[in-house]
Structures are given as structure tokens and as C-alpha cells.
Amino acid sequence: MSDDDQLFGARLYAELRKLSGYDLITGIMDYKAIQQLKAADREGTVKLFRGSSFEVTQLLRTAEPEEAARYFVTKATEAKQDSNDLLAAISLMISSL
């Protein structure tokens, strides 16, 4: 099956796996949601992310799945870095007491 024949959700899932491994996916979705994503067309994918921001919803409605996956991975990486920076700052403050 070519990329053109694959459903939007399956392409998004495959790109997320390629870019981030399985950790990002399982961090935001359980097994049932993953199976639903793999079987979803574009509109079904938007419904799966219905609690997301307007920015995410619009991205899923207009972008290719590969672009959406890059966005998700970038945001997850930024969040992880911010979390690590916060933990480092807290550790530094505690050690200076």
C-alpha cells in the first residue's frame, strides 16, 4: 500500500513512530486509541484529538500527517526540555540552601 492509499491516522502513527519511537505515542494514547488512530481517516483523526488546542485541530485538518507528526515531536521535545530545565533549577536551589 502506498502512502497515498494509507489512511491519514495510519500515516500519522507511522511518522510518530519513525520520529520518536513508541514513547511519545504511548504517553498520549492508550492501546484502544492507537488502534483507532491507525484506522482513522483525517476527520476521524481530528475527532480523536478533539480535546486539543485550536492550533492542533487546524494542523490536523490542513497539514499532511508527516508535518503534524513533526509538530507533535517538536512540542514534546520542548516540553521535556522545559521540564528538565525546571528540575535542574530546583536541584540547584536546593543544593544552595
Shape: elongated
Estimate percent helicity: over 70%
- Mean pLDDT comes to 84
Ends distance: 61 Å
As a whole number of angstroms, the C-alpha radius of gyration is 16 Å
Uncertain runs? none
- What number of structural domains do the residues give? 1
- Strand percent estimate: under 5%
Please give the count of helices.
6
Element string (H = helix, E = strand) = HHHHHH
Biggest sheet: strands, sense, closure? Answer: none
Label the structural class. Answer: mainly alpha
**How many strand units?**
0
Label this structure with key terms:
97 residues; mainly alpha; 76% helix; elongated
Report on the structure:
This protein is mainly alpha-helical. The chain has one domain. The protein has helices at residues 8-20, 23-28, 31-38, 42-48, 54-62, 65-95. The longest helix is centred in the last third of the chain and has 31 residues, at 65-95. The protein is elongated. The chain starts with 7 loop residues before the first helix and ends with a helix. The model has no long low-confidence stretch (mean pLDDT 84).
